[in-house]
Design goal:
It is built from 21 helices and 30 strands. It is of the alpha/beta class. Helix 6 packs antiparallel against helix 7. The longest helix is centred in the first third of the chain and has 19 residues. The chain binds adenosine-5'-monophosphate-propyl ester. Adenosine-5'-monophosphate-propyl ester binds next to helix 13, strand 20 and strand 25.
């Protein structure tokens, strides 16, 4: 590219090239019933009223003792919320609903096999199970306040029961995603210093009953090698009374929880009154380098924040049937399957299986059967369902009043399918931007207060004040449409407290970049840096462009991989697209494009490849022109359905793909490699 050309195309213009979409307005029916219809909430939560405004959220909880200090910044950036207050999370999620809603369904469990009946668990039944499980953890395993308990389980109600039992005891749970390996679990056991592991014998995935207990043995071994001894392993059974794993129990260490818990029948455990600042859980997440970090979430601040956002953003009412199709092993499941919905006394669906098994109609059959009216999932799942069964939703009679997307930017084309075909044009959609670290939503529209805009998350949540900084720490003018690093100016109750055992890494990863005075105890000096690039439109809506490390720097220009992928999806044949940076002698990096096609399509004579390349040039500019476009039969994906761009990038760059055995479809890797490398 000539110097002249590169000067002509500024970063700002590139951002603007991703077309602004029109607004979609929520229906009057939705607004009429919404929990939050009062726009003055933004004034109440202005920076002038910070931090006291968050009292409004804390008042949604039941406290044993009220707090004296809303926000303590004396150990900034380790902020303390609602100091002096005492509460219990399991009391708030269960006990307080008993008086009025004892026999209302709390959890609605759906096994994957369609011939197994769904299981409603009432608040009374949940209370009984959580008490008995807490007694078992206390008396068999010696679990007490402040102890860490690692839980490595699939999507079954016993997972939520075990989490709430830990919370009842004031113990800190560390849930490891069920699809992770024994090794990954062992490393997390070791880092957290857990002496107890809770697991399961087996679970269903795509029609197969998979062994799970073998991972526990590996995990215990890995932890032991790192010096952490696991004393007790509790094994829930997928079919109580029948052991479904091939791996034997280890005498004196392993106990069948489903049997053992019967010995605690009728036992009740008084909820431990923990200080608001006591950790509720750890959730490990990957960083750019090094081992996964244990994000430590507190009790009072976290619970207040997820309760309020479940009420106002998810618009959950006690009478709703709410289904979040995430895994409880991720933060979305913690905040928006378990803690938020249960704290509100709602009915929360737990689904064991994969959305496209046995076919892409499954989620819609479930919605129809259970009367789900709030639906929550990730763009990846939406794309997957759109690819496998674009016409399926129309075959079922279900009506969502509200839908959520979370976890990745959603391409406008995909958003529109979600809105028209899944939502049948009736549902209000929220695109919620946040992270494991942040506990709850950071940017989203409030569904009855602002219109939706496909591809944009929306403005900062009430009390969340985003700002975009450039690399040098200068603020990008509000609404300028220039991409930069989005940060949050202020602390908020849902944010994590630190990285477990590594305060330095907490400070250096999330604050050091924009902090000017490391000794300051003024929160204004500690903007939170989530590591995402973003652009703010003149209407104050933020569009998240992706991780800072996902940004492709082409000849000095920032291109969000998502921008390019969105352009690829404009080609009618394309179902999914992934963009990876490939090294280029002249431009530094250029995009390589991988696309898979909708059923029944093929690329004849390189026609689709050409269309994709043209679509990118047309919608973004020539600087984004891909080096190659590859049409693949499928993308390498994690078991949670995320496209593994890292693997594609390694293939494009002729590097080692690393360990791909944990992928959902490891075989595709060789196929793609042959296509690319010959
Ligand atoms: O890059 C952002 C992206 O997902 C990252 C956080 O991932 P994780 O901690 O796994 O949490 C996922 C569930 C909250 C963010 O740094 N991300 C999350 N939500 C969105 C998003 N990107 C765009 N739009 C979103 N709505």
């Amino acid at each position: 590219m000539s110097a002249k050309e590169s000067m002509e195309v500024s970063e700002a213009q590139i951002a603007v090239h991703w077309q602004e979409e029109d607004y979609y307005h929520p229906s009057t029916e939705f607004i009429a019933q919404a929990n939050m219809t009062d726009a003055s909430i933004y004034d109440r939560f202005s920076l002038d009223n910070f931090p006291e405004c968050f009292k409004e959220y804390a008042d949604l909880l039941d406290w044993y003792e009220y707090w004296h200090t809303t926000l303590d910044t004396s150990d900034a950036p380790c902020f303390k919320w609602f100091v002096g207050g005492k509460l219990n999370a399991s009391y708030n999620c269960i006990d307080r609903h008993l008086a009025k809603n004892r026999n209302k369904t709390a959890l609605l469990y759906l096994p994957e096999p369609e011939d197994e009946a769904h299981q409603p668990i009432t608040y009374q039944e949940l209370w009984v199970r959580v008490n008995e499980t807490a007694a078992m953890l206390r008396d068999t395993c010696g679990v007490k306040q402040g102890d860490r308990v690692t839980i490595h389980m699939p999507m079954v109600p016993e997972l939520a029961v075990t989490m709430l039992a830990c919370a009842r005891l004031g113990a800190i749970h560390s849930v490891v995603f069920g699809g992770f390996s024994g090794k990954a679990c062992g490393e997390r056991i070791s880092d957290s210093g857990s002496k107890v592991l809770v697991t399961m014998d087996a679970y269903y995935r795509s029609g197969k009953l998979l062994e799970h207990k073998d991972k526990a043995d590996e995990a215990v071994q890995v932890a032991a090698d790192e010096g952490q001894e696991v004393e007790k392993v509790l094994v829930w059974q997928r079919y109580p009374g029948k052991y479904s794993a091939a791996t034997p129990l280890v005498e004196g260490r392993d106990y069948l929880a489903s049997d053992l818990v019967k010995e605690y029948a009728g036992q009740r455990v008084e909820p431990v009154r923990v200080p608001a600042e006591d950790p509720l859980f750890l959730m490990y997440t990957s960083g750019t380098t090094g081992r996964p970090k244990g994000c430590q979430h507190g009790t009072g601040g976290y619970l207040a924040y997820v309760t309020a956002t479940s009420k106002y953003v998810q618009d959950i009412h006690p009478e709703d049937v709410y289904w979040c199709m995430a895994d409880i092993g991720w933060i979305t499941g913690h905040s928006y399957i378990v803690y938020g919905p249960l704290s509100l006394g709602a009915t929360s669906v737990i689904f064991e299986g994969v959305p496209t098994y046995p076919d892409a109609g499954r989620p819609w059959r479930i919605a129809e059967r259970l009367g789900v009216n709030i639906f929550h999932t990730a763009p990846t799942t939406v794309r997957m369902l759109r690819k496998a069964g674009p016409d399926e939703p129309a075959k079922y009679t279900f009506h969502f009043k509200h839908m959520t997307t979370v976890g990745e930017p959603i391409e406008p084309e995909v958003w529109k399918w979600y809105y028209h075909v899944v939502g049948k044009g009736e549902a209000a959609i929220v695109d919620t931007w946040w992270q494991t670290e942040t506990g709850g939503f950071l940017c989203s529209t409030m569904p009855a207060l602002q219109p939706m805009k496909p591809g944009s998350a929306g403005p900062g949540m009430p009390g969340i004040h985003p700002v975009i900084f450039d690399e040098d720490g200068e603020e990008v003018a509000k609404g300028a449409g220039i991409a930069g690093n989005i940060c949050i100016r202020n602390p908020w109750p849902g944010q994590f407290q630190t990285i477990w055992g590594d305060r330095d890494r907490y400070v250096s990863t999330y604050y050091a970049k924009y902090n000017k005075n490391p000794k300051s105890t003024d929160w204004r000096d500690w903007p939170y840096f989530p590591g995402d690039a973003s652009v703010e439109a003149p209407d104050g809506y933020f569009r998240i462009l992706g991780r800072v490390d996902d940004v492709i720097n082409v000849a000095g220009h920032r291109l969000g991989t998502k921008e390019i992928e969105s352009a690829c999806l404009l080609v009618p044949e394309v179902a999914e697209a992934a963009v990876v940076p490939v090294a280029d002698e002249v431009k530094g990096k250029v995009p390589d494009i991988y696309v898979s096609l909708k059923p029944g399509y093929e690329s004849i004579g390189g026609e689709v490849e050409r269309k994709v390349s043209d679509a990118i040039s047309d919608s973004i500019g020539k600087i984004a022109k891909p080096k190659h476009v590859y049409v693949v039969t499928d993308m390498p994906k994690t078991r949670s359905g995320k496209i593994m761009r890292r693997v594609l990038s390694a293939i494009s760059n002729g590097k080692d793909v690393g360990d791909v055995t944990t992928l959902a479809n490891p075989d595709i890797v060789d196929e793609v490699r042959k296509l690319v490398q010959g």
